[in-house]
Write a structure and sequence with these properties.
With 311 residues, the protein is of the alpha+beta class. It is 35% helix and 27% strand. The chain folds into two domains: 4-167, Ribosomal Protein S5, domain 2 (2-Layer Sandwich); 173-301, 2-Layer Sandwich (Alpha-Beta Plaits), CATH 3.30.70.890. It has helices spanning 64-75, 99-114, 125-136, 144-149, 185-190, 198-217, 220-226, 233-236, 243-252, 274-290; strands at residues 4-14, 23-42, 44-50, 81-89, 152-158, 161-166, 173-179, 257-260, 267-271, 295-301, 308-309. Strands 1, 2, 3, 4, 5, 6 and 11 form a seven-stranded mixed beta sheet that branches.
């Protein structure tokens, strides 16, 4: 059994426009790193957090990483195990890219490997959902499942939990731009309507089914025309500066589809190649700069691996 480990877990794009809380995919960058050590003592200690500008708690009961790890230890019958955790945030907090998810997944993957992988990555998903519950008040899986499993993931059901890995076109790239404005996940979730019209639900179901079918068929056009959200995006887009202008720019530059990543403010476009993805991020960042907003960009193929050991 290992005594220490260093792990990277990837950022994710949740919802994928029409799949609110049921679809997501992993990207290669950004992501978070966790260093974990068995101490021989008792209890979990967070010794260091970097890259968070002091925003994340060192209290192990309040931090998503340590809280999820404690749930895991309770499950395997070793609740008092001595563990030290370092968390290195390599991605912006509150970006809509699964920041809490990446940290939580890195921690769970690390502790599971320290205990000789007693659980599969899929079996770790419920523990990661506990971290999401702590972070945003609701234990959804559309970030943590793709972060753990890699690729595109469908959560067919939450009760019981039923997670399905989906295929995708090999040439698919994501162009991601994070405008540096504050959109807290809890606030963005509270804006969403609790009731919708049946005709709108029918439209949304068709788009989700179309997107999943497009991924299986590796049909770019079907993927693109299915990336339409009439339930959540109209509300959440209000919080994102010039969202529809950015969508227009992305589509004119060759995007297959465009939407909000998670609860925002990050936006993403799917493309058929890396060059188009880079051209889109450049145009979106230029536009945001023109209206006085700083931004970060990431270009990535779909991450198939999920979390990885770095040492």
């Amino acid at each position: 059994m290992r005594e220490s480990i260093k792990v990277f877990a990837p950022a994710t794009v949740a919802n994928v426009v029409c799949g609110y809380d049921v679809l997501g995919f992993a990207v290669n960058e950004p992501g978070d790193e966790v260093i974990m050590k068995l101490t021989g003592g008792s209890g979990i200690t967070i010794t260091k957090i970097t890259g968070d500008e002091g925003r994340l708690p060192l209290d192990p009961k309040k931090n998503t990483v340590s809280a999820s790890v404690q749930h895991y230890l309770n499950h395997i019958g070793k609740p008092d195990t001595g563990i030290e955790i370092e968390l290195h945030k390599k991605m912006p907090i509150g970006s809509g890219l699964g920041s809490s998810s990446a940290s939580t997944v890195a921690g769970l993957f690390a502790v599971n490997n320290l205990f000789d992988s007693l659980l599969t990555n899929k079996e770790l998903v419920p523990f990661a959902m506990k971290g999401e519950e702590l972070a945003c008040g609701y234990g959804h899986a559309d970030n943590v499942a793709p972060a753990l499993l890699g690729g595109f993931v469908l959560i067919r059901s939450y009760e019981p939990l039923d997670i399905i890995s989906l295929p995708h076109p090999e040439d698919l790239y994501a162009a991601i731009v994070y405008p540096e404005v504050d959109v807290p996940t809890k606030d963005a979730r509270q804006m969403i309507r609790s009731k919708v019209l049946l005709k709108d639900a029918v439209t949304q179901w068709g788009n989700v089914a179309g997107l999943v079918s497009g991924l299986f068929l590796k049909d770019h056009d079907l993927i693109g025309r299915s990336m339409t959200d009439i339930l959540v995006e109209p509300t959440r887009s209000i919080l994102i500066p010039d969202f529809y202008k950015m969508r227009s720019l992305a589509m004119k530059t060759g995007a297959i589809g465009f939407g909000i990543s998670g609860s925002g403010p990050s936006v993403f476009a799917l493309t058929k190649d890396e060059g188009t993805a880079r051209a889109i991020t450049q145009k979106l960042q230029q536009h945001l700069k023109g209206i006085g907003i700083n931004s970060l960009s990431f270009v990535s193929s779909v991450n198939k691996k999920g979390p990885v050991i770095l040492d």
